[in-house]
Amino acid sequence: MSEQFQGGLRLLSKPTKLADIAALAGVSTATVSRALSGHPSVSKATQARIQALAREHDVRPNQLARNLRLRSTGAIGLAMPLGHARTQHLTDPFFLSLLGYIADLLVDRGYDVLLSRVLPENGDWLDRLVDAGRVDGLLLVGQSDQYETIERVASRYGPLVAWGVHRDGQRHLAIGSDNVAGGRLAAEHLLERGRRRLLFVGDPAPPEFGDRFAGFAAAARAAGVRAEVLATAMDPDRVHAAMRTRLAVGTLPDAIFAASDVAAMSVLRAVSEAGLDVPREVAVIGYDDVTLAAHTSPPLTTIRQDLARGAALMVERLLARVAGEPAEHAVIAPELVVRAST
Amino acid sequence: MSEQFQGGLRLLSKPTKLADIAALAGVSTATVSRALSGHPSVSKATQARIQALAREHDVRPNQLARNLRLRSTGAIGLAMPLGHARTQHLTDPFFLSLLGYIADLLVDRGYDVLLSRVLPENGDWLDRLVDAGRVDGLLLVGQSDQYETIERVASRYGPLVAWGVHRDGQRHLAIGSDNVAGGRLAAEHLLERGRRRLLFVGDPAPPEFGDRFAGFAAAARAAGVRAEVLATAMDPDRVHAAMRTRLAVGTLPDAIFAASDVAAMSVLRAVSEAGLDVPREVAVIGYDDVTLAAHTSPPLTTIRQDLARGAALMVERLLARVAGEPAEHAVIAPELVVRAST
DNA sequence: CACGTTATCGCAATCGATTGCAACAAATTT
DNA sequence: AAATTTGTTGCAATCGATTGCGATAACGTG
């Protein structure tokens, strides 16, 4: 480490810490610290000398010690509760993109990002994350089925922001899109195209998807048509299987609203395997507007959630909370993106 | 924080650290530390009492202080150098899946994951990551165009593992798949299907893609046919545009090998837009076998890279290096997955 | 020449947890 | 009853960087 020759300057091993540089330069650790941070009270000459030494030996202040002293970690936790998808890995491009945007923004602002993919096995997971003291704040990418846990922890821990829905009386700060409005957009677009036999495909249990269906069904009802629902788990294989079964029996829908773009891809496949033409015989619309949506065949009409904006809002409000300022929830408006599948 | 009433036990504010619990329990901090870690030298009675107190007040040892004292961080850095894709966000499902697998494995082993998406603006980025002392080891998801930098840093820093190619004489430890073999598999499969007008689509500059094309071309040559190359940047729009242009002129290929599955999706779209049937008129094969590959229409034949295994190898070898043990590079064999697009 | 300024720099406390060693009490042995 | 062992606990140093305050030297001024 940094044992040095009895009073001499010859280090027995590589210098790694500020004290080593201090010994080399013949000054105190305090001076080295100040020199590296550009403190004005250390002379230009020593400042340059010390910085050169530090650079030469690849010595940088240890962040752990620094953060301990400064009582701040410089890191934000980014967690992804996977409650209703225990067996599934994080593969949904929507969440991954959101995660990427968030990571970008945080890094830009000088924060480190501590990633924890969480399988909530007991109600303890969030407390552990919060109390470990490794992060200045916590971002939750999705609420999953952990609404209660999040509510409980949020009541005692401020710097916590989740992506997801906001209900009346909710204590935790959530940023999300208006899924009811999104579902309505989808229905209105299909109705405008003259479609009348509407089918919703997806899992209506999670609140986001439930809202999408609610908006969809409400708009349909307003137009005097009924929206059928094909309930299925959201992983591609299950969606595909459910869709194939559905297409084999009963009257064919002439428009399908998939709860997510990934689900829509499975729908597209099942539909084309059934020999049906998209969009002539069946229109398909997705949700999210992930990057790949523009590159399916045919390109997918979808309801866009502005992830860049969502991520920016999450980061902005979280950092406000970290700084002790108040911050409220926000809703971003969904937007219809028309492509060739409708 | 933890100021307490002059000699009394009434805390003025919430207890947050072990010393606070110590004051509450009327013991020393040392005893609290030992009690929480289940050290045998503290009596069962006090141990239970202290644990109850800590649980009741949501107090857990501060990880920063703990790690500083223990000279280990309990965290692994996970960085994604984006050299030849400066403007692009991390959206490639291949890298994201790899990232997900790695994060899972590390969390399972009790490590935290410190995520840094890096835009290498100067040769300094990797040194900073290494010398900040926040992580016990570093995982690089992709080498991008930073081969030289990685080589340099690896020569002085052991616990560093990258996903990517291994060249003779390479100093840094890399795990990757045999891209030459993968390219060969693709060509052989297409030739077996009777295809003769082979086209490679993608950017042959990055070493992985270059190898894929090399294997592809070699196998074609061995069969007496020539493999054409359509060089293009890898983002979906550029691939789509390049493909559309290519299909408009010259002789049509009867088989297309895309450098990645994501690129293959754009190829599929361009081909179907040109009114060509897949696979009757044009066969399409991708590379990676990302989750979505099974759900394109038609489902994509592809060369599978076993990411779960790749991630496991990366983590295993990194942790060996962290523990000071030697570890060598590894190559995983690609595998042909036949679906409906060929 | 005495005294006040100013520019540099070091001392030592601090952040919070861990742990070797010593201190002490209780229990056991002689 | 004295000596020894066993079982618990506290003291204090340590990890490495930061920073308020005081010390020192160099400088200028009357």
Task: Briefly say what this structure is.
Two copies of one chain form a homodimer. Helix content of chain A is 41%, strand content 17%.
Descriptive notes:
The structure is a homodimer of 342-residue chains. Chain A is of the alpha/beta class and 342 residues long. Chain A folds into three domains: 18-61, no CATH class; 75-177 and 308-332, Rossmann fold, CATH 3.40.50; 179-304, Rossmann fold, CATH 3.40.50.2300. Chain A is built from twelve helices and twelve strands. In chain A, the strands form two sheets. A six-stranded parallel β-sheet of chain A has the order 2-1-3-4-5-11, with helices on both faces. In chain A, strands 7-6-8-9-10-12 form a six-stranded mixed β-sheet, with helices on both faces. The longest helix of chain A has 16 residues, at 93-108. At the A-B interface, helix 4, helix 5, strand 2, helix 6 and helix 10 of A face helix 4, helix 5, strand 2, helix 6 and helix 10 of B. Chain A binds a DNA duplex (30 and 30 nucleotides) through helix 2 and helix 4.
What descriptive keywords fit this protein?
homodimer; 342 residues; alpha/beta; Rossmann fold; 3 domains; 6-stranded parallel beta sheet; 6-stranded mixed beta sheet; 12 helices; elongated; disordered N terminus; DNA-binding
